[in-house]
Amino acid sequence: MAVVEEYTHAGATIIAERRGAGHPVYVLVHGIGMGRTVFGELASHLDAGEVIALDLPGYGEAPEPARVLTIERSADLVAAYVRERVGRPAVLVGHSMGAQVVTEVAAREPDVVDRLVLVGPTVDPSARTAARQLWRLLRDIAVESPRVILLGAREYLRAGPRIRGKFRAMLAHEPEKTFPRVAAPVLVLRGEDDLVAPRDWCASIIAALPDGRLVEVPGHGHETMIRDAAVSAREIRRFLREK
Fold this sequence. Notes:
By secondary structure, the chain is an alpha/beta fold. It has helices at residues 40-45, 71-86, 97-108, 130-141, 146-158, 163-172, 199-208, 224-227, 230-241, and strands at 3-9, 12-20, 25-29, 50-55, 90-95, 113-119, 186-191, 212-217. The protein has an 8-stranded mixed beta sheet, sandwiched between helices.
């Protein structure tokens, strides 16, 4: 049974949906325009331990903050939540923009992080404009299933009229400057057909990380953990067994 809770820190609120108990603890952080519902299938496959899926401020059911949060401030909020409500290091899983958030958590607050999973990480510096990111995303999602498209459309509508400001906050962040400061082991997970997170970009992430590895999911694009999460979950569990 899921437990849904609110957590407010420094004037911003997240919604957390918690399932299961024990070890490991997964904290799932969504991408731009999304919310915790996109992790429904992934959470069902991560059935050992506790799974906590978040709505960041202004996404899903979380209220809009007074100002759009930077990636750094979102990271501080997630780190404070893990420290106060989880109470031990967690496996942070970030999809797309969420990968930027959890990377900042790992660099800024390493004591709350066990391991890091970056799924389809953004933003590729060669496409750091809203137009290029949207064009890549539209081309990627055009071949997705109707279920993925409908879910994504619903979540983008829920993200509200401030979505442009949220895009600007995402694009202003430069994760390539943060990767070298991440001490935790990192799994970079991408669909082999992902146009938003190209292979060259993901390979450069691995090169920048002190301890990183890259795994590709055959036949999948940017929304790999939404359309069919079983393979992604299997790779995440395998990554944890490598301790």
